[in-house]
Amino acid sequence: EALMSVEDVKRAVISSEIEKKLSEWASSIKAFLKKYDDDKYFAIFKEGELKKLEENRFDILDKIRETGEEMKVLLTLSIGVGAEADDFLTLNEYASSALDLALGRGGDQAVLKRGDKIYFYGGRTQAVEKRTRVKARVIAHALRELIKESSTIFIMGHNFMDFDSLGAAIGMYRACADLGKKAYIILDKSNVAIDELVKKIKATDGYQDLFIKSLEVKNMIDENSLLIVVDTHRPSYLSYPEIVELIDRIVVIDHHRRGKEFIDKALLVYLEPYASSASELVTEILQYIVEKINLKPIEAEALLAGIAVDTKNFTFRTGSRTFEAASFLRKKGADTTSVKQLFQNDLASYIIKATIVKNAEILDNGIAIAISPPAANNLIIAQAADELLTIKGVKASFVLLQRGEDVAISGRSMGDVNVQIILEKLGGGGHLTVAGAQVKKPMEEVLNELKQAIKEYFEEEGEDR
Ligand SMILES: [Mn+2]
After folding, report:
1. Residue 42 lies in domain
2. How far, in Å, is the centroid of ligand 1 from the Cα of 68?
3. Could you say which of 130, 163, 186 is where a domain stops?
4. Residues 387 and 289 grouped into a single domain
5. Which of 253, 326, 356, 429 could disulfide-link to 384, CB 3.0 to 4.6 Å?
């Protein structure tokens, strides 16, 4: 995946660098290492050497990632190890299922299946702190060139836009404006999640034509139009997927882990799953895209609101760079009190939220499940799921809402339970701590499937988790 985006010469250099690192690693544990596909390797070594790997927590993972950073590509290694079986067939099965698990949990980690126990090493925990800003700078420069060559720039978020999507979109709007280009954010209709901010922006001088309707876009497109997609990379999640078909030059900036579905024709992709939010990514880009960005206080506020919503006020997925971004936005005039006010609820939604919390059932494993009254919406169930996490003993929460023929589910976790894996079983997705799903089935059925998925999840994770 990393190599697909680089030119041939560089690809060869990167490949040989990876191979060098891996064969050094193999010889350090006296392993037989064999490449069996473009990006796959097979190794056999003695149980005694495995102890060493566990002691240094598979530091080859860091070495490969650092190699990538030096060469400005995102390289990660995922390892599955099988141990303590009576025969090679079983060992291979263990290793394969461990590898599946490593990839399923986001890669960049090692999973060891020793008999019926499973151990995890590496992965996202330290990756947040390890990211360098090299990539943000490289992307910013490439993006600047693309914007400069464009006629008009259109910016699109995901369906049912949230503060993160809107904040990132406004940040990109500023970048285009500072580069002397006309840019629009495509938005037909605001929604409850962003209403406050949209109203505030529309009431501010200079933003009267910031938003544009999707129908109008269609008449304005030419071969030099540029589409910047923020906060998603899945075509089916876009607010106006049909526009992707009409514009050839596309940029994707997202912080969600790559799913199967992707905007394949994108010219430039900045996918950084370890960033807290699309707003954080855009804030970094803004610091490199022009000499001195002319970010307005309301724009800085929108970006800060985006970071705040995706990190639950700097609690989850928050790395040192998240604070650096926030600090930059504060300097540019983002007012933390105004941001807080954007999150205020009206009394009616607060009462619905309280009802959801009151209805919650807390299972033995610390999972809270609640069914929402029909008057709620996506935002309220997400907030209610967050609220459930403030209850002692609750490790993860799921709130279900009947919406027409669909049941919407909002999943949240403190970090021990991977709600992404659970909701993926129901066709949803997201992150370890924040995930969602939409299921076209009756509530009763969805509730049963969810409980089954939770049960399976705990069985799969094993006792070690
Ligand atoms: Mn986001």
Report:
1. 3-130
2. 25
3. 130
4. no
5. 356
